[in-house]
Design brief:
Number of helices: 17
Strand order of the largest sheet: 10-11-12-13-15-14
Mean pLDDT: 87
CATH superfamily of the largest domain: P-loop containing nucleotide triphosphate hydrolases
Largest sheet: 6 strands, mixed
Number of domains: 3
Strand content: 15-25%
Distance between the termini: 71 Å
Low-confidence stretches: 192-205
Radius of gyration: 28 Å
């Protein structure tokens, strides 16, 4: 089917629109929001990372409620001018609300037709809201998107404080108030404190401590991703050009990379669709590679935050390359930032990178920084076309051997702490120089007490499973072999690779071939200190 004739497309810019864009069916999530949050009259904040579907979710809530409620759906995007003064804010909000009332409930619009007075504008505005809630025969729900735009303004915090007071009065005396107030943005309202200047901290009180935690998982499950692909495949079939994709397998593969991060899911689908590919597993792998190599506001925002918050960047690097188990503690600034930006997730009380695409992009970012200060790039030029790729397949054993030679040439007798911190980063930079433009890799999230990093490399439809670890004795090495065999079984592979960094302080460790249970494991030992005499 030609693109020009298709009515719907995969959308990665702005909110998805029903009937215009291919969308995941999240009706079950909307049902939960209505049942658990809206019907009980709760006030809450949908705070998620960039391009996580917040605006689309608000639109779906609006569509669900518009026939039974008056929905005052507003956005602060591009509205910075209303925060100049109390009067500007109240008058701006009055006009926004008036516009919505004229569309949904003209009979209630009259109380918002009078211009806000210069004297006591907030008092007058709040009286208008109470009158509206008192006279309306429908529940009033306020939705405010892009609430981050207002976070630096005292007038907005004052408005939230007044809404809080109205909510409390509603609870105690059944006085008129909005049935729900739903805010959406990257920052949780409790994080407004982090935006206040230091001299203001002493007088700060949370203006929104009435909000209940919004804990709904907004990521897409494989089954939910499948609903979008089924819709797409149906359109293709109707047009006489079906893809015959295995929807279940493709959905699982997309989820494997994205963990259901909405814009990542749509981006992969968009790349495959617009490239007119055949929707195979290899096409998904290639789309991920192209997505990682392309421009993305999501990645730009991530790197910007690394530069703004160096402590957050350092914690991210530790999680990736040192494979530390970091226990989540509420209120730790760097942890909260990562969760707020959608780059971290809390897994059973441990902080982890939220998905494989983020892990790979972050690895590539730190690799680029490493290349600028090391000789890695020069060595890759010298070794170009030196047997790394044979008949379209990676010669992974040869790659590990050459990396070992590189480490001996450049980092022999390096400080042990340096190797434990940077060795895996250096290897991934070495590997990326070989597969860049054709293949990609994914870093697994599991951690252990012997500091293992699991890497799967995808190259021209083939997979290669590696483990990168610090040598901590034969027992731990046997555990690593058992672990990689488990991965090989899951992926129907028979050959795997271990790259071990050993201090070699007491005796030399030698590279070896391990045969076990019908599997072959090639282990390359990077001995970064000379053996002691």
């Amino acid at each position: 089917m030609e693109q020009a004739k298709r009515e719907k497309h995969f959308n990665t810019q702005g909110p998805c629109i029903i009937g215009r864009d291919y969308m995941v069916d999240v009706s079950g999530k909307i049902d939960t929001i209505v049942k658990d949050y809206i019907e009980p009259g709760k006030y809450f904040v949908i705070n998620r990372g960039r391009q996580y579907g917040k605006t689309t979710t608000l639109e779906l809530i609006y569509q669900r409620l518009k026939d039974t409620c008056i929905v005052l759906d507003l956005s602060f995007e591009g509205k910075e001018g209303i925060f100049k003064s109390e009067w500007d804010f109240c008058e701006g909000m009055r006009l926004f609300i008036l516009e919505r009332l004229m569309q949904q409930s003209p009979e209630n619009a009259v109380s918002f037709e009078t211009e806000t007075p210069q004297s006591l504008p907030m008092v007058k505005f709040l009286i208008q809201i109470k009158n509206l809630c008192s006279k309306s025969n429908k529940k009033i729900v306020m939705l405010i998107d892009e609430v981050d735009k207002a976070a630096d303004y005292e007038i907005f915090r004052s408005f939230l404080g007044n809404l809080r007071d109205m909510y409390i009065e509603r609870s105690k005396r059944n006085t008129p108030a909005f049935h729900n107030v739903i805010l959406a943005g990257v920052h949780d309202i409790r994080n407004l404190k982090k935006k206040i200047r230091p001299e203001e901290q002493a007088t700060y009180n949370s203006p929104w401590n009435i909000a209940v935690p919004f804990t709904l998982d907004m990521s897409f499950s494989p089954a939910e991703i499948a609903t979008m692909l089924a819709d797409y495949e149906n359109d293709r079939a109707v047009a006489g050009n079906p893809t015959d994709m295995d929807i279940s397998k493709i959905s699982e593969r997309i989820y494997y990379y994205t963990s259901g991060y909405p814009v990542m899911v749509s981006s992969i689908c968009q790349i495959i669709d617009e490239g007119n590919h055949s929707w195979t597993i290899e096409d998904v792998d290639n789309a991920v590679r192209d997505f990682l190599a392309g421009d993305s506001l999501l990645f730009d925002d991530m790197i910007k935050n690394f530069n703004i918050y160096p402590g957050f960047a350092e914690l991210t690097k530790r999680l990736l390359f040192q494979q530390e188990e970091v226990t989540y503690e509420d209120g730790v600034y760097e942890m909260d930032l990562g969760l707020m930006f959608g780059i971290f997730r809390n897994v059973n009380g441990k902080i982890d990178i939220s998905n494989k695409i983020f892990r790979t992009k972050i690895c590539n970012y730190f690799i680029a920084l490493e290349e600028m200060k090391s000789r890695l790039g020069r060595y890759m030029c010298i070794w170009e076309n030196s047997g790394f790729i044979t008949n379209g397949e990676l010669n992974m054993r040869h790659i590990l051997e050459r990396f070992n030679a590189f480490m001996k040439a450049e980092h022999r007798n390096s400080d042990e702490d340096f190797i434990e911190r940077e060795g895996r980063l250096i290897f991934l930079g070495f590997l990326r120089g070989i597969i860049n433009g054709t293949g990609n890799y994914a870093v697994e999230s599991e951690t252990s007490n012997y500091m293992r990093m699991d890497v799967t490399v995808f190259y021209l439809g083939k997979e290669y499973v590696l483990e990168l670890k610090i040598w901590h004795g034969e027992k731990k090495n046997d555990d690593a072999v058992d672990q990689i065999i488990k991965y090989l079984k899951a992926r129907s592979l028979s050959t795997g690779y271990l790259l071990s960094f050993a201090s070699n302080k007491t005796s030399p460790k030698e590279s070896q071939i391990i045969e076990k249970d019908g599997f072959t494991i090639y282990e390359e030992i990077v001995a970064y200190r000379a053996a002691e005499e």
